[in-house]
Design goal:
CATH architecture of the largest domain: 3-Layer(aba) Sandwich
CATH superfamily of the largest domain: Glutaredoxin
Strand order of the largest sheet: 1-7-8-5-6
Helix content: 10-25%
Order of helices and strands: EEEEEEHEEEEEHEHEEEH
Distance between the termini: 47 Å
Largest sheet: 5 strands, mixed
Length: 223
Amino acid sequence: MKIIIFFSFTIFSLNCFSQKAEVTKTADGKGITVKAQYTIWYDAFGKTISKEQFNDSLKTGNYLISINPDSLTAKTYLLNKYPSKSEIIGTKVPELTYPDILGKTIKIGGISNISVLIFWSITCAPCIQEIMVFNALAKEYPNFDFYAITTDNKVAVLDFLNQKNYKWNNIVIIPDYNQKDYDLGIYVYPACVFMNKERVVKEVCFKEDLRQTIALMEILDKK
């Protein structure tokens, strides 16, 4: 049994140790302590490391925690939040057809020279900031199509937009996305995929690095 913990510095109890194992935050709120009969710490490549090295890596903010327990040992792994870009760039995005937020059937990409697929969630503050910027940039990049894609359901997204009074009229909002149709292998948002008309991925941006994302847009626009 493998348990992936989306760690937000709260206290977790794991029933797999008959309620004896616990994952708790450290005093500084940036590391963890696992209470089990035995604990082995691993980095993101499966190499054993010390508890101190594990927590030092966790403090970077680039990892989540995966715990694979058995009856005696808690095998605790660092898990990359984002896959390597090399795993995605150059791959082909499958044909994706979904109804947008207004119910119109949309074929994602394949029309403009570059399509920007923005994967987001209504609970992700950096995602919202990013989409607001993209909505403004859409007029400056007429060769790009922008799609804000979320697994959140249509009702929740509409309620969110209405409550916040967001008017994202320059981008296509796609709710109810099935991640099985195209799984980037990421565990947190935001994430952006830039693909060409043939749906081949040209660039990928993770995290809320808008400056880097906009710089990539400028480069792609000139090609």
